[in-house]
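Our working data are protein records whose layout never changes between entries. Getting from the letters to the tokens is the skill we practise here. To make this concrete, we reproduce a full record directly below:
***
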Amino acid sequence: MIPFDLLLVLDLSALNKDMFRMGNSTWPSFSRERAKIDLLILVIDGVETVVANGNGFSAFDHLTPLMKNPTKKVWKMKAGMELDKRIRLVKDMRKGHEGHYMFAPAENMPLDDFLQIFVDLAKDTAHCVPLFETKAPHGK
């Protein structure tokens, strides 16, 4: 987790620049497993709850060297994509982490609700697109 004093919370209703995230062939991989690594999750009254502490799912404003590997599946979330009011784009201000951002919860909420935001985000095919070309086998 990145300390809050090294984060800049941006108050945006839509992305102001293109953002990139590694995923798989079907979506940008905003998964429960990844959430358990990237977010502080507490069980409150028996419900897994994400804590709004500025940490969230990583994204970058550029292609990282790893993303440039042709075997990696990279997704682009285009500038102008609307952001759900329950998430914030947070800029990592640590030296050496230039261009690193996170999609973080704006408020504490159930993990399932947080994950649903990203399922819906990935359905915006005008703004959330793969950067790789899917080809049919044998050129068909």
Q: What stands out?
A: The first strand starts at residue 7 and ends at 10.
